[in-house]
Write a structure and sequence with these properties.
This protein is α/β, with parallel strands linked by helices. It has 2 domains: 2-173, 3-Layer(aba) Sandwich (Rossmann fold); 186-274, Pantoate-beta-alanine ligase, C-terminal domain (Pantoate--beta-alanine Ligase, Chain: A,domain 2). 40% of the residues lie in helices and 20% in strands. It is built from 11 helices and 9 strands. Strands 1-4-3-2-5-6 form a 6-stranded parallel β-sheet, sandwiched between helices. A 3-stranded antiparallel β-sheet has the order 7-8-9, with helices on one face.
């Protein structure tokens, strides 16, 4: 595996591989790699000649500096996992390399960027769009792979590619879960052992919501989930939303859209956990 920290070195490598007719698959990460990341990489490796992975904890997408400071980092461990999965190139830049000048770019994703995470984390998606646009420009892949756990982020990235007319195919990949149902996330490392044992409850409630969707309307289903978490002292429910799977706008009836997803964000201790489940 080759490791680059400079944009120019990565550009030159990509240019050479493309000129040789090689296809490039790209997986952007912020490190603290887990099996969910590795599944994306395995698929990218299968579907392309060259696998490039980036590890960069992007400061522009954190609206909470404490969250940025606490984000887990272990590049040596990440490198070992990348070698095992067959990664060809690791791009691991510094913040100064990525942002030599002050970032001023502003994107307008309309209502897609204002609901759910957009409302809870002002500026987050603008930071995501800035770094993803830059990373796609640097790596110039044929395909880029993203997980459906961060479904709204995935929708934003697809919108970004459309807005910027980027020559890349975005590949969405299913949520990867632990055996007990907890969605894999780098943030899980910050859970205490007791919190880790409690966390799968989130997925259990999502499955319960899906089951009950056949018998109650969306409004009653939302209230049911809210009431469940009100009774659980360990959890603080930030939001539970039922939305269409394209524009992610709240639905009022089950026939409001052909595809509907239940989105949830809860705090368990000091850790903010995100998950979702398809209803229809």
């Amino acid at each position: 595996m080759i490791t680059y920290s400079k944009i120019s070195d990565t550009n030159n490598f990509v240019l050479q591989q493309r000129s040789n007719g090689k296809t490039i698959g790209f997986v952007p990460t912020m490190g603290a790699l887990h099996d969910g990341h590795l599944e994306l990489m395995k698929r990218a490796k299968q579907e392309n000649d060259i696998l490039i992975v980036s590890v960069f904890v992007n400061p522009t997408q954190f609206n909470n500096k404490q969250d940025l400071d606490k984000y887990p980092r272990d590049l040596n461990r990440d490198k070992r996992l990348l070698i095992d999965v067959g990664c060809d190139v690791l791009f691991a830049p510094t913040a100064d390399e990525m942002y030599p000048n002050k970032v001023t770019k502003k994107y307008d994703f309309g209502s897609l960027g204002s609901v759910m995470e957009g409302g809870s984390r002002p500026g987050h998606f603008n930071g995501v769009a800035i770094v993803v646009n830059k990373l796609l420009d640097i790596t110039n892949p044929h395909k880029a792979y993203f997980g459906e756990k961060d479904y709204q982020q995935l929708a934003i990235i697809k919108k970004l590619v459309e807005m910027e007319s980027l020559p890349v195919q975005i590949i969405d990949c299913p949520i990867v879960r632990e055996k007990d149902g907890l969605a894999m996330s780098s943030r899980n490392e910050r859970l205490t052992s007791d919190e880790r044992n409690t966390a799968p409850y989130i997925h259990q409630i999502l499955k319960l919501a899906k089951k009950n969707s056949s018998t109650v309307c969306p409004r009653k289903l939302k209230q049911m989930v809210i009431n469940i978490f009100k009774a659980e002292d360990e959890f603080e429910l930030e939001y539970f939303e039922l939305a269409d799977d394209k524009e992610l706008q709240p639905i009022t009836s089950w026939d409001s859209a052909s595809g509907i997803i239940a989105f949830i964000v809860v705090r368990l201790g000091k850790v903010r956990l995100i998950d979702n489940i398809r209803i229809i």
